[in-house]
Amino acid sequence: MKKEFRSLRPASSNVSDIKAVAQEAQAKDILVFIDEIDRFSGAQQDYLLDFTETGTFDLIAATTGNPCHVLTPALVSRASIFQLEPHSLDDLRQVVGRAIAFLASHKDVDVHLDDDAMKQLTGRAGGDARRVLNALETLVLGSEPGSAISITGAMVDEVYQASPLPFDCRGDYHYDTISLHQIDAWLGSGRHPLLAGPPDPFRGGSPFHCSPHSHPRLGGYRPG
Asked: Which of 5, 13, 92, 141 allows an S-S link to 17, with CB 3.0 to 4.6 Å?
């Protein structure tokens, strides 16, 4: 039987909205999608758990955080978790091609990217199609119908320089990027660790904080 689709957003949905969908699901098969499910409180997630356990409705949810860290253990234990991998460069080139085709057919704007522009636009997005589309939108913003735009690598570079990096000082990426092992490697290289380290934490707004007791060689480290 075909299921009806319903979506919930934690920013605008609450327990009463979950209850309304559950009541509707008593009479029909419903598939519920929740984006940014980690923004539901622990109590809201527990309320949601009851309906998923009883099979009241099927649930698919998405989060940009590590589910084991941002969701309640009970909800995680009853879920199948799939990690979505970053897009490949070929995928992103297809995204750019579709966006250019859309601009031509719906906005009457002719966009041309040289090879360097395409390489930078896709290569510096970190596999994130949204970053590619946001950068392209910035480059064509304000274009009049019937106009033609030639985008160069320098133009793409300027857009990305102004874009914030997706760095979460409390998430997995922080600990993947900044670890005591890496700090040891920087010190062993004879370079100043704060200058030799990767730029992502600094550009993403996560400075180092040092205390004199937590690391024997650096003088201490704790995440921002």
From this structure: 13
Q: Model confidence over 154-198: pLDDT tens digits? A: 999 999 887 655 555 555 555 555 555 555 555 555 555 444 455
Domains of the chain, earliest start first: 4-77 (3.40.50.300), 89-161 (1.10.8.60), 166-224 (no CATH)
Structure tokens at 147: 């106009």
Lookup: tokens for 170:
């409390």
Residue 143 three-state SS:
coil
Query: Burial of 57 by CB count in 10 Å (0-12 exposed, 13-18 middle, 19+ buried)?
Result: buried
